[in-house]
């Protein structure tokens, strides 16, 4: 079975691989609200944390391709049967509206590595 693909409003990028979203799941139902958004964790990548080299560049890349206040596409992923990580973030692949994977772009640009935990 294919993972689900949804339109979403980008509320805020926390860093290069963590994003706050309002996800339109259809039937007049959203996951998250502007004042209490759903949080997505881009997988299977890892970008630098605040204070690390390339933190600003990775975050800027994500913001450029799925701007805050704009729309994106979100594909949800299950990892080991789970939809969320230990911090309650949904496992996601984020696409620009023209279908370009931000996850893949961060890897290709050297701003992310494969997550190894």
Account of the protein in words:
- The protein is an alpha+beta fold.
- The chain has one domain (5-114): OB fold (Dihydrolipoamide Acetyltransferase, E2P) (Beta Barrel).
- 15% of the residues lie in helices and 41% in strands.
- The chain contains 2 helices and 8 strands, in the order βββββαββαβ.
- It has helices at 55-65, 102-108, and strands spanning 5-15, 18-26, 29-33, 36-42, 45-46, 71-76, 90-95, 113-114.
- Strands 1, 2, 3, 4, 6 and 7 form a 6-stranded mixed beta sheet that branches. The protein has a two-stranded antiparallel ribbon with strand order 5-8.
- A hairpin with a 2-residue loop joins β1 and β2.
- The two termini are 25 Å apart.
Summarize the model shown:
The protein has 117 residues and is of the alpha+beta class. The chain has one domain (5-114): OB fold (Dihydrolipoamide Acetyltransferase, E2P) (Beta Barrel), CATH 2.40.50. A hairpin with a 2-residue loop joins β1 (5-15) and β2.
Enumerate how many helices there are, as a single number: 2
Total DSSP E strands: 8
Architecture (CATH level 2) name: Beta Barrel
- The number of domains: 1
What's the CATH topology label?
OB fold (Dihydrolipoamide Acetyltransferase, E2P)
Rounded to an integer in angstroms, the radius of gyration calculated over CA atoms is 13 Å
**Biggest β-sheet description:** 6 strands, mixed
Distance between the termini: 25 Å
Summarize the helix and strand pattern as letters.
EEEEEHEEHE
Indicate the percent of residues in helices. 10-25%
The overall pLDDT average reads 94
Low-confidence stretches: none
Q: Structural class from helices and strands?
A: alpha+beta
Beta-strand residue fraction? 35-45%
Name the shape in a single word: globular
